[in-house]
Amino acid sequence: MTSGESITGGAPRTVRDIVCGFCGLGCDDLEVTVAGRAITPRTACAEAARLLARSDAPPPSPRIDGVPASFEEAAAAAAGHLKTARSAAFSGLGADLEGLRRLFDLAMASGASLDHAASGGLFANLDRLARKGWIAATLAEVRNRCDVMVVFGDDPASAFSRFFSRAVPVRGEGADGDAAPLFVTAPGRRQIAVVGGPLSEASRRVLAAHEVTEVTVAEQDVATAASVLTALVAGRAVDGLSGLPETTVAALAALAEQLKAARYAVFTWNAASLPAEDAPVVAGAASEAVDVLSVTTRAAVFPLGGRDNVTGAHQLALWRFGYPLRTAVGAGTSRHVPELYSTAAALYDADLLLHTSAFRPDAPPDFDRGPVIAIAHPDTVFAREPEVFIPVGTPGVDYGGHVFRMDSVVCLPLQALRPAELPSVAEAAAAILVLFGRGA
Predict the structure, then answer these.
(1) Which candidate, 9, 43, 84, 253, has a CA 20 to 30 Å from the CA of 202?
(2) pTM of the predicted model, to two decimals?
(3) Cα–Cα distances in angstroms (integers) from residue 114 to residues 28, 75, 90, in the given order
């Protein structure tokens, strides 16, 4: 924030060096103009700009069965529904760490399953990590050491628009140019190979200073291509076994040689953008390639993800319950069965849905087997009006908080940009919990 400025009132002010909590990259150089409660982004990617922008319009009030109500009345109604529920499902979980703590407290008191809206990609990666482990890099290691990067699947910029400028910067170029890589020569030039793709024109411009290879394969062939590349790195024969065109296999063979000669190779992919059955295959192939390369050089995986603090929700579940997400808690016990407690599966047996989405206006999943409680972004549009709607502020806009970066090693502080007129997720969940304990 500019020197001497208050968060309330006064002339329009510029707020710099804002940490973004939306996509998981944890960019910390955003800039906005704040006038009263209106926020106008100045430096931000398109997604962050959309989610940061705010007008001066007054926020909506809570609603019970579509009728405006006070915050206290809505919290009491939510507590009453939870009191009578026998099998609640908590979905979304888009909140900062303090909000998640209070939601987990509420789940333990009432009995509920817990799953995050962005956990699909997380669990595709956990399948490999739980069975065999992997060697993973941090964003700083990728930025400062990676000289050969392999991207499996679609252009990462479709979901993480600043990924390449953050992960493989070049000295003096772009917004990140001053923070040049420490251990990559000439000056910061890398070899970037995309197995899948194609890259967008915007990504090609960002990568213009690097040596870029695009091995274009269809979406359904990305897992096969990843397995072939790993086999080639390991020295196994692949002739005629993959069904891929000879030109593609030849390009993968050339890439395998680049990887063997690399000083620090990194494999990255966005499991959420891959077909569900292929994502674990890609994660396994990348991890196996790292195992092979690590005998003679350095290599690591860097899985992409982290939207709406899913990494923080995963970490907090591990701390609190000893299990990751897709766990049911209550009555002093916890039970982790991913195939039963993913949101889609849990809703088959649930008689109440509590959905939280504070970072973006994502509506709850379809559910008609019982009441819906939405602790959600004020702009949320519902296909079916929930029994209880409690609009909440956004972390990093209306109030401060903490979120985890996608690589799990950095917990980032978010700051409030304007006066809050809505409760936080933590305040909403805490109020429901107090009333639940009183037998509301």
Answers:
(1) 253
(2) 0.92
(3) 29, 20, 5
